Amino acid sequence: MNNSVLIKLQRAFGERAITRQELESFEKEYSIVLKEDWLEFAEDEDCYYLTPEILEYQKPSQEKHEALGLGELEDRIVDVLEQGKSIPWGRVAIAMWIFFLFIVVYTVLETISK
């Protein structure tokens, strides 16, 4: 199945009835040929509907997330905390003090200039 075509079909038609002319114009617009198993024909209404498989189709996610057990979660938290020990906290503290002094000087200069 062409994933982008299925998404376009969902957006264009959704769960509403589709006429043969709409299908032909869709095929011409996107230069594709629709497969018959993507559509269901309702004889009593003389129109088409998208199949439930097409309506339920979702674009596959790039990342697959899986649930972690408590032990695995604890291990990941401990690993992150261990990585935090390697941060040069002295440099961070100096940078925070410099930023604090900048704010104080800026505020004083703004009050003086007014």
- Helical region count? 5
Rg over CA atoms: 30 Å
Query: What is the helix content?
Result: 55-70%
Q: Describe the largest sheet.
A: 2 strands, antiparallel
Written as H for each helix and E for each strand, in order along the chain, the element string is HHEEHHH
Q: Report the β-strand fraction as a percent range.
A: 5-15%
> Looking across the biggest beta sheet, what order are the strands in?
1-2
Mean pLDDT: 84
For the secondary structure, the number of strands is 2
Low-confidence parts, pLDDT < 50 over ≥5 residues?
A: none
First-last Cα distance: 68 Å
Shape field: elongated
Secondary-structure-derived class: mainly alpha
Structural features, described:
The structure is a single chain. With 114 residues, the chain is mainly α. Helices cover 60% and strands 7% of the residues. The chain has 5 helices and 2 strands, in the order ααββααα. The chain has a two-stranded antiparallel sheet. Strand 1 and strand 2 (47-50) form a beta hairpin. The longest helix is centred in the last third of the chain and has 25 residues, at 89-113. The chain is elongated. The chain starts with a helix and ends with a helix. The mean pLDDT is 84.
